[in-house]
Amino acid sequence: MYALTNCWMFGPMRSISFIVFLFLSLGAGAQPAGYKKLADVNSFKTELSKANAAVKNISSDFKQVKNLSLLAEKIHSKGKFYFMKPGMVRIEYTEPYYYLMVMNGSRMLVKDEQKSNKINAGSSKMMQSVNRVMVDCMQGTVFTNPDFKTTAYHDGNRYLLSLVPATADMKKLFEQIDVYMNKSGMDVVKLVLTETGGDFTAMEFYNTKHNLSLNETLFKVK
Length: 222
What we know:
Blueprint: H1 16-20, E1 36-37, H2 41-53, E2 57-67, E3 75-84, E4 88-95, E5 99-104, E6 107-112, E7 116-120, H3 125-139, E8 148-154, E9 158-165, H4 168-173, E10 174-182, E11 188-195, E12 200-210
Antiparallel strand pairs: 1-8, 2-3, 2-12, 3-4, 4-5, 5-6, 6-7, 8-9, 9-10, 10-11, 11-12
């Protein structure tokens, strides 16, 4: 799965501010333990672009752990992730609460067990950035995002892309975003988002499938 975002689940999410913190979170700055800086970044970019060119859509299960400094216990949740080119995303939480977020261009739908809200993501630089980070990771264009400085690392089985905010707006929100990808298929297997205050969200993706017959109604904002 080639994915990425910024929001988090703390019970049912009920405000725009919660939405903005679900998809971008991780831990911070120096070279990560066990990983080496990638020497040939251009070859990696070519490989990533080639892998993404073959993918029309993605379907995946995910499990998420949210760490809040104010809470002694971590918050665990599960759900389904869908992506369809050119830039449609559906994130559907099924445990412990139902919560749905659909991003389709500049439009966004947020729905919990009680109500749904439509949001114009195009009117918010923050939401535009969230949208772009997600799509960049899925389409292999993460290195061209001016809001972040991206550094590539690798170990025996995975690549790691560490995104550090490069603009004042993003520095207010995030300390770092880490995207883990397997080397065999260039799928995103883990996304860690660390907020400026140190709280973080980790999403792990599994049972990833490509190019299924997904119905476009999954991505409808209505």
